[in-house]
Amino acid sequence: MADDVGYWNSSSGKVWRSGFGECWRGGHWTPDMATEACDPDLMAQAEPDPEPQEQDADGDGVPDGRDACPGTPPGVKVDSRGCPLDADGDGVADYLDRCANTPANTEVDEHGCPLAGTKIFTIEGVHFAFDRSELRSEARSTLDEAIRVLRDNQGVTVAITGHTDSTGSDAYNQDLSKRRAQSVHDYMVARGIDANRLRAYGRGEAEPIRTNQTGEGRAENRRVEFVVEE
């Protein structure tokens, strides 16, 4: 007889059993030698080997094999590719972005804030009636969006620049464009934007963006633009 496999075996390889049908364990028997035929209870208790865990070196929840942005700092929220979230799509991750909710297609610096000289909003001519500087209702909805952007970007100072079409004298249009810019300035200050962050300028008819030979072109030239200052 031999017990080299944990149980006493006959020369034919069969396990010897007692009168009660129990397998005879050898002197070297250990639980890891248990077989289903002899110790089914022990086999049922044995747990399967755990599945190998995929490595996730930066701990962002995305395995290294699928992580397009390895080395993410601890606690930073990531997308399904393992890259830090960038809610406004400006190319600067949210955890580094000092100016959240930057308008689409705005050029930004390494902190996610609009670059000086960047135009961030334009209120086009349909919002100003001919020869008038009062804000129309549709202009207010656009301005409310601009106010939200300024609240989200506290470090930004903006030049509000008014423009006119070519109807009228240069001097009159210069004054009208300044009044339009001032109307926008006053509206925004009344809604909580610090006046020190806003500058109102008039450019008159000097910088058209469309021809002044058509009604449609003149309407587009009657506008106010927001440009980030230094």
UniProtKB/TrEMBL annotation:
Acidic residues compositional bias, start-end: 48-61
InterPro entries: Bact_OuterMem_StrucFunc, OMP_bac, OmpA-like, OmpA-like_sf, Thrombospondin_3-like_rpt, TSP_type-3_rpt
Keyword Aminoacyl-tRNA synthetase: no
The UniProt record lists the keyword Signal: yes
PROSITE patterns for this protein: OMPA_2
MF terms in GO: calcium ion binding
Record CDD domains: OmpA_C-like
Key words of the record: Cell outer membrane, Membrane, Signal
Superkingdom classification of source: Bacteria
Positions of the OmpA-like domain: 116-230
Localization terms from the record: Cell outer membrane
SUPFAM superfamilies, A to Z: OmpA-like, TSP type-3 repeat
Region named Disordered: 31-83
GO biological process: cell adhesion
This protein's name: OOP family OmpA-OmpF porin
